[in-house]
TrEMBL record:
Residues 26-40 have a biased composition (Basic and acidic residues). Residues 1-58, 96-120 are annotated as: Disordered. This is Uncharacterized protein. It comes from the Eukaryota. GO terms for biological process: SCF-dependent proteasomal ubiquitin-dependent protein catabolic process. Pfam families: LRR_6. InterPro entries: Leu-rich_rpt, Leu-rich_rpt_Cys-con_subtyp, LRR_dom_sf. It comes from Attheya septentrionalis. The lineage of its organism: Eukaryota, Sar, Stramenopiles, Ochrophyta, Bacillariophyta. GO terms for cellular component: SCF ubiquitin ligase complex. Residues 105-115 have a biased composition (Acidic residues). Gene3D superfamilies: Ribonuclease Inhibitor. PANTHER family: PARTNER OF PAIRED, ISOFORM B, PARTNER OF PAIRED, ISOFORM B-RELATED.
Length: 611
């Protein structure tokens, strides 16, 4: 070691020792305060990281002396202690201080608004008058649940115990009220012994569908069951699940069913069974075919060429086409539709439904602009079509002659407010009754308000809908104003000439009109929207979905249930944790069996009404 380093060690050594002694002395004094008798504490050196006022803990029954507490409380230095309990204690203290400060500031603002803290004898009367005006504008504020008052025995019960009692009560109501019908009993007995059934005979297609659903639910849908359901002579072959049906088996059945008068072919989850062989079986009988409806879902073996040939062979009688989740379909299918259903041919297409089909924008534009194949369309469903945008919608709706009764554009991310204008222009005759816009994230509140607003020059009146689905849109897009305009438009008395909006006319509200099925899940609708539904659709509403609508309270839903007719049968409230027992156990139909509430949340809510 050099001489310079030795000098540094001699100089630094005593200073380091003195610093260490000072720290040890402070630690000893601090620890002695917990173990020794209370006595006058020294005001000497205190560690900067120790907070005696917030974190020091004493083991003596007397604690520190009052003089010491006064000194520590009057200290101006903000000291902290690194222990976890002490940190939590400090955080709680800071939170309480912040809350107290906010309350004081709020009180000061209220005093300033009320005249600098001076109170007038009429202030209470004016407050009551304002509250009465608000109650008249929002009648749901006056709703009170029929829930019995709590006593000592009910107040001490666990919250989930109360919910369990409600569940048992609802289960008892279902057991006593829902007695199985004779039809249901017969179907269950038939399905239980279906292995012994050779043929169903002269059984209606709706009954065959019920039997098929029960077979699928019980796991008994196999090849033998298919042969019994697909008897020669049936008008409709409707299978909810074709997983156990082979392509050869289906082709053989179609060769006998089509000439015998098969009119509707509806296959869900068709998978491997509907492919080239099944298509060829239908084409071979095209001359005697009377098929008017084809609905195929999940046919991963069906190619674009086969689908095009199928449409061409059956276009003479076909009026309803639906293809879902068939990955090999594309341009050929659309070209065949536009060619075989144009005015130059004899085909008339009335229903078109495509879902999750890989088609290009050019093919969709060609379908709407090249021919008038869609001129007689009454129902258009284009779900989850990646290329569908506003330009395509304008092209498709242009040739339609105002006969549309239902539109479904769910889950098309490129569709914006411009398509709403196209839909309203297309509704020349006012025939539109069902509109599904679920999952359209590009829609805005301004666009929806304009769509449902009356008396816009150059546009037909807004549609008088019976079914409205605005679920899973942007929460800010579906508001109380939008719902009020839609409900008002649906309940208006129909004018003689509804093609073009004229000057403002008082049409009034029809007691027979109004929304029937409403889905506004995930929206920003509040109790005001429930009041609008109660005022306009009280005689028509059957089903309402307000799942994940966090701003609707007990009072809004309770008021709605008390005002609508007894036909209101189903209410969806998934994710509405703000609803409490005041609604679930206190609405006006709690003792009736007609209203089913789906999705009751097992959590106590604290959110109040939002105005």
């Amino acid at each position: 070691m050099s001489s310079d380093e030795g000098n540094d060690g001699e100089i630094g050594g005593p200073q380091a020792l003195r610093s260490m002694r000072r720290r040890n002395r402070a630690v000893a004094e601090r620890e002695a305060s917990r173990l020794a008798r209370p006595e006058q504490r020294s005001g000497s050196a205190v560690l900067g990281h120790a907070s005696r006022s917030k974190s020091a803990v004493t083991s003596t029954p007397f604690g520190w002396m009052m003089k010491s507490k006064t000194k520590i409380a009057s200290a101006t230095v903000d000291e902290e202690w690194c222990g976890p309990f002490s940190v939590a204690r400090q955080m709680i203290a800071a939170r309480e201080d912040a809350k107290k400060k906010r309350e004081e500031e709020q009180q000061e603002r209220e005093e300033e608004e009320n005249g600098g803290g001076e109170r007038h004898p009429l202030d209470e009367i004016m407050t009551e008058v304002d509250l009465e005006k608000k109650r008249k504008a929002n009648p749901s504020m006056t709703w009170k649940g029929r829930r019995p008052a709590e006593n000592e025995s009910t107040r001490t019960k666990n919250y989930y115990v109360k919910r369990q009692k409600r569940f048992i009560r609802e289960a008892d109501d279902r057991m006593t009220g829902n007695v199985p019908t004779l039809f249901r009993i017969c179907v269950d007995v038939l399905v239980e012994h279906f292995d012994s059934v050779e043929a169903l005979g002269n059984v209606d297609s709706s009954i065959r569908r019920s039997i098929c659903e029960s077979l699928v639910a019980s796991g008994k849908m196999n090849g033998a069951a298919f042969d019994a359901l697909a008897e020669s002579g049936v008008e409709s072959l409707e299978l909810v699940d074709c997983a156990e049906v082979t392509q050869d088996q289906l082709a053989t059945s179609l060769e006998s069913l089509v000439p015998a008068g098969l009119r509707a072919l509806i296959l869900n989850h068709s998978g491997r069974c509907f492919g080239p062989k099944a298509v060829n079986a239908i084409i071979s009988c095209a001359d005697v075919s009377s098929l008017f409806a084809i609905s195929i879902g999940g046919a991963y073996l069906l190619t674009d060429t086969d689908a095009s040939a199928l449409i061409k062979a059956t276009a003479r009688t076909l009026s309803s086409i639906e293809f879902r989740a068939s990955p090999l379909l594309g341009k050929g299918l659309l070209d065949s539709i536009s060619t075989n259903f144009s005015s130059s041919c004899s085909g008339t297409l009335m229903e078109l439904a495509l879902e999750d089909i890989n088609v290009s924008k050019e093919s969709l534009l060609a379908l709407g602009s090249s021919t008038d194949a869609l001129r007689n369309l009454k129902s258009l469903s284009l779900r989850q079509i990646g290329a569908l945008d506003d330009e395509v919608m304008a092209s498709l709706l242009g040739p339609i002659e105002g006969s549309l009764e239902g539109i479904d554009l769910s889950d098309n991310v490129l569709v914006t407010d411009e398509s709403l204008s196209c839909i309203r222009r297309c509704n020349k005759d006012g025939q539109l009754r069902a509109l599904r816009l679920s999952g359209l994230k590009s829609l805005t509140a301004v666009g929806l308000e304009a769509f449902f607003t009356h008396n816009i020059p150059g546009l037909p009146n807004p549609p008088m809908l019976r079914k409205l689905d605005l679920s899973s849109c942007e929460a800010s897009a579906v508001t109380d104003v939008v719902l009020d305009l839609a409900a008002t438009a649906s309940s208006m008395k129909k004018q003689r000439d509804s093609k073009v909006s004229g000057p403002t006319v008082s049409m009034g509200v029809s007691t027979m009109g109004g929304l029937v099925f409403v889905n506004i899940s995930g929206s920003a609708v509040t109790d005001t929207g429930m009041e609008s539904l109660a005022a306009t659709s009280f005689s028509s509403l059957l089903e309402l979905d307000v799942s994940f609508c966090s701003q609707i309270s007990d009072k809004g839903l309770g008021y709605l249930v008390s005002k609508v007719h007894d036909g209101f049968s189903k209410l969806h409230v998934w994710g509405c944790a703000q609803l409490t027992d005041e609604f679930h156990d206190g609405h006006s139909r709690v003792d009736e069996r007609g209203l089913e509430i789906v999705g009751v949340w097992m959590k106590n809510g604290t959110v109040r009404s939002v105005r």
